[in-house]
Amino acid sequence: MNQNSSLAERSNYFRRLRSPLFLITGCIAFSESIFWALLRRITPKLIVTASMPTSIRTLQTRFLKEKECTKLKEDSYQTNDLILNDSVRLKLAIGYFTYQNASSWLHTFSDPEIEISLHRWGWLLWGLNENSASLSREQGLALVRSWLRYCEPTDSFGLDAYSTSERIVNGSIFFLKTGDGTIPPDIQSSFRRMSLQVAENLEYYEGDRTGNHAFNNARGLFFAGTLADSPNAIALAFAIFRERLPKIISHDGFLREASSHYHFLFTRWILEVYWLAVQNGQKVIAAFLAPYAGKFVEHCWFFLVKDELVYSVNRGYFSGFHSRVVTFRTLVKPRNRALYARSSSLLSGR
């Protein structure tokens, strides 16, 4: 932006400030934000319930009835710490963390995003293709069981539906892509319990403040429901997909949040769900997602400049993207094959 246009924009802004209507509108908007912020802290459950569509609330209630049947039993996970060789390096949002024993899970970090990445299990997926952070299936399973044994009984870990959904999906992909591709029964049971925590803490808010988190909640529900045999979780997830996608995606196929890295992040989410639906014969869900997935992948090319992806690993939100994207070839035929080959190689980590 040149100097003249910058001055013009500044002049327009100050001119608006002098307008009584602009001042009144701003004050009203600010007051509304304060009101809803206070109400969310005083009665959070009421806000969620009131903001949630009736059909989704009905499915949520039906699914939560299963809660009494999935209580955690003592010593559900027998962790073999010898497999871990006493210390394992885990790739977090920024840098690495050395797991030494079960008390490592309670380590605190100065940056909350780094701490959250430890509990979202994204390090499992870095271990699939990064030599410096590689994890065998046995190591990954031992780490997951260690976390579940020492952290799952702490209810606070289940209150964040976003992080719980990340654990479900990251763990699922790791087990599906390693060894014999199966998920042990005790891990399936933990995914089912996590899905109930997600359902109980769905991230619906007033007005248009719900955003993309509810879709991520549904992503976790869909993975857990499909892999732990919970039809009610799948039904709830599909209802959220149908409610959220038309609202958070523009008519031309971009995420309404107008963010390049969030566009790629959401592309990853929708491709993961589409992939699992196809793999497990969920034809109705796959057919619903396919047009959205195709558009999102196609519009990723909008953010490609000089053969490089214009996104950043934004404090861990985007960590691990390249190791998780389903191949573009199944969804979109790019115009520039040379550019596709280079960017596809980047995304696959080769």
Description:
There is one protein chain. The protein has a domain at 1-42. Helix content is 57%, strand content 3%. The protein contains 14 helices and 4 strands. The protein has helices spanning 3-17, 20-42, 44-51, 54-64, 112-119, 123-129, 137-151, 161-176, 185-200, 213-227, 231-248, 260-279, 283-300, 337-347; strands at 88-91, 96-99, 304-305, 308-309. Strands 1-2 form a two-stranded antiparallel sheet. α8 (161-176) runs antiparallel to α9 and α9 packs antiparallel against α10 (213-227). The two termini are 38 Å apart. Mean pLDDT is 79; it is low at 1-5 and 307-350.
In summary, what is this structure?
The chain has about 350 residues and is mainly alpha-helical.
Secondary-structure blueprint of this entry?
Layout: H1 3-17, H2 20-42, H3 44-51, H4 54-64, E1 88-91, E2 96-99, H5 112-119, H6 123-129, H7 137-151, H8 161-176, H9 185-200, H10 213-227, H11 231-248, H12 260-279, H13 283-300, E3 304-305, E4 308-309, H14 337-347
Antiparallel strand pairs: 1-2, 3-4
- Structural class of the secondary structure composition? mainly alpha
Relative strand content: under 5%
Helix content: 55-70%
The dominant shape is globular
Low-confidence stretches: 1-5, 307-350
Largest beta sheet: strand ordering: 1-2
Instruction: Tell me how many strands there are.
Output: 4
Q: SSE order, as H and E?
A: HHHHEEHHHHHHHHHEEH
Main pleated-sheet profile: 2 strands, antiparallel
Average per-residue pLDDT, rounded, comes to 79
